[in-house]
Specification:
- With 387 residues, the chain is an alpha/beta fold.
- The protein has two domains: 179 residues, Rossmann fold (3-Layer(aba) Sandwich); 185 residues, 3-Layer(aba) Sandwich (Rossmann fold), CATH 3.40.50.
- Helices cover 35% and strands 14% of the residues.
- It has 14 helices and twelve strands.
- The strands form two sheets. A six-stranded parallel sheet has the order 3-2-1-4-5-6, sandwiched between helices. Strands 9-8-7-10-11-12 form a six-stranded parallel sheet, sandwiched between helices.
- It is globular, with a radius of gyration of 22 Å.
- It starts with 8 loop residues before the first helix and ends with a helix.
Length: 387
Amino acid sequence: MTFYPFKSFWKRWLARAFDAVGGMLFFPFRLSRKPLDLTAVTRILVIRLDHIGDVVMSRPAIRALHKKFPHAAIDLIVTDDIAPLFEDSKEIRTVIAAKHSWFNRKASFDQKWNEFWRLIKILKPNLYDVGIDLRGDLRNILILRLAGIKRTIGYGITGGGFLLNEAVPHDASRHQVRLNLDLLGSFHIAQDNKLLPFEYSPEKSRKFWQKIQTLPPTTLLPRVAIHMGSGYPSKRWPFENFKALIQKIDRDSLAQIVLIGTAAEKSAAPDLKRNSGRIIDLRGETDLPDLPILLDVCDIFIGNDSGPAHIAAAQGLEIVLLASGTNDIQLWHPWTERLSILRHEVPCSPCGAEICPVEGHPCVEQITVDQALNAFLSVLARLQKRT
């Protein structure tokens, strides 16, 4: 039986009913589908229209496709804010930026609807041999079908599995990286699940360091990037805790601290009172495509479960992750062995809530500053042993 992740009974019921009716109507067409000639694959489309961390975790699957089909052109659809991260990727021919995806809360229904048809119009002339939806989203499946792609692969967990040539069984106990790789099973790919760093051109690096003159590329101290923001309030460790942690690291001259984040995150968490030049506040001064360049000169990342944490993992940093109970962190954590997860177990996890409904927000507020400091010191000791 298909796994449907909806919390609402009615949504699960509608998805099952939709699949039952659609499965019967499309049954004759499924019998007539011809197997795909793998030697003839020259164009592949991958869709991952959601959040930064989810897209980062799709990269091992994209690399696996590139290894299996080295001469095929692989195109990737992501949201327009994430697209610049892939501009210099050697594995992707074209990054197609979706301007008003259905995950964009600021976009109107009309904008999302028009974007849906704009993407189909762009994709149809490309005559893709294979289309893969990594999320398991009915809207993505419809794009693949309406774009006329020869072979479509995905998870039918929100309905529409009958529209796919290959609806892969979804194992909800698998980490997201492994779930993405599971979709490639029929290609018999030797799976390498290592997360490689994001690539960027020397010109981009040069322009970045010209722009950020307050941060020298090298330092005698270890350098720690700290990100206090996250996509949802439910995932945020309190600002006062971050402030106390930063002051303790700075007081003992343990590291140079680089604060990263958006201008909005900076305004929500006011400037820290800095007693030394070891704290450099770059919040609001860097864009998402700048993060790989910046993180490549850092050693440690401390922050909430967020997109920057996943990018830091890709760039090879040690990660101290302050994890809320919003997600099952064992299935969504940054994909790296250099990971220290701090969390406080609560019975209501995973809740999926954007704002914690429990007084005191115990899943993150019960994580103490001393716990975070001790995790940081342990990572620091490991780094010193390496050198």
